[in-house]
Amino acid sequence: MIKKILIANRGEIALRVIRACREMGIETVAVYSEADAESLHVKFADQDVCIGPPPPAKSYLDPKRIIAAAEVTNAEAIHPGYGFLAENAEFAEICESCGIEFIGPPAKVIREMGDKSLARKKMRAAGVPVTPGSIEDLTSVEEALDLAREIGYPVIIKAAAGGGGRGMRICEDEKACRNNFQAAQTEAAAAFGNPAIYLEKYLRAARHVEIQVLGDKHGNVIHLGERDCTVQRRHQKLIEESPSTAVNPVLREALGEVAVQAARAVGYYSTGTVEFLLGDSGSLYFMEMNTRIQVEHPVTEEQTDIDLVKEQIRVAAGEKLELQQADVHFQGHTIELRINAEDPWHDFAPRPGQITSFHVPGGHGIRVDTHAYAKYVIPPFYDSLIAKLIAHGKTRDQALRKLRRALDEFIIEGIPTTIDFFKQVIDHEVFISGEYDTSFVERHLPELIKSRSKP
Ligand code: MV4
Is domain 4-103 given the CATH code 3.40.50.2300 in the classification? Predict the structure, then answer.
């Protein structure tokens, strides 16, 4: 078994990995930038190494600094968390070449699934349903217009190196498609260093439902159910829940089977997420595959009582999955909110700064994954996530009641947060009904932020 793991990340996910390691008797090495010297992951790790100044490029995103820290501490494995180098195939290869176990899927798979257009092509070849659209990257605006005419508007242009909605452009008609084509290429080149773009039929009023998969290095792959991530703002997920109110047992079975089929088709191991779009009448389409542990993994942990980070570590150590599909059971209903240091009343602008008082909710069925504490200073250099508030109940209504009660207990002072915004969201009749779609936030944002806060 692996004796020492370096966590190449920060914030709540670094703490999450350290917790799993400590329960497994594995030593931990934290790396931190000068801005994170007072962070909890540094305090809770067995060893810590300062790897540089605050800018990610000079710290958490620099493979040389991460590898150097692993060398000097004799860490046998590196857990990348999410973001930063988690889906960087070159970094995974560097780890391998240095004899350090990268806790994640094979570098080849990271690279292939990182090209969202190639991922579609491989999934289609594997018999996985994908949204109607281009087979290869688009080579000309004429090709895009011909294809759009064939599949019908609206269409959506996406960056092959994008993902997570970055660089997406919805085209309602030919004029928009013509105008967006060039802009999308330019934006993709600037944002991702790769101008490749592709086109899909745009599914209006869809649901974004993803399946958690878990594979070992011996060819075993299982799925751990779905997470509905449809409530997003500018492609930042805000709320994730399971089970999805849009998925019935027949569709759940189909989604699980297709997700496992997709993972097998690309030779997957470790934790992974297969993202689908659900159209009306139960249609499902592969969207993209994420090759990392995701922010929202606690939703699946609460539904299945499986520790996903521990499973990742066991798989990295070469162990076979103990679990078979028949051993996976889903209990109750779980909803997660991402509490950010942002001001909903000023376009969700990031608001770093010092937390002057901090009280975390508790009680049966409430989990809070956070690295924050009273007097902690949220640095301006990284993402604005403060905490994930997760509520688990026997039913959706019970989970919602727990969540609402927990939001009232959650005290964060000194900086603006999205706590009060979420009170409006989970009190909204459309959200409560479960009948929401991808347009929910955009359509209801004005009323959601009209009153500053509710008791
Ligand atoms: C789509 C889509 C509808 N049709 N693709 C991709 C990444 C994810 N963050 C959003 N993605 C979507 N891709 C096709 N062909 C709908 C979404 C989508 C979405 C789009 C706009 C606004 C909010 C959204 C929330 C979830 C999914």
Answer: no
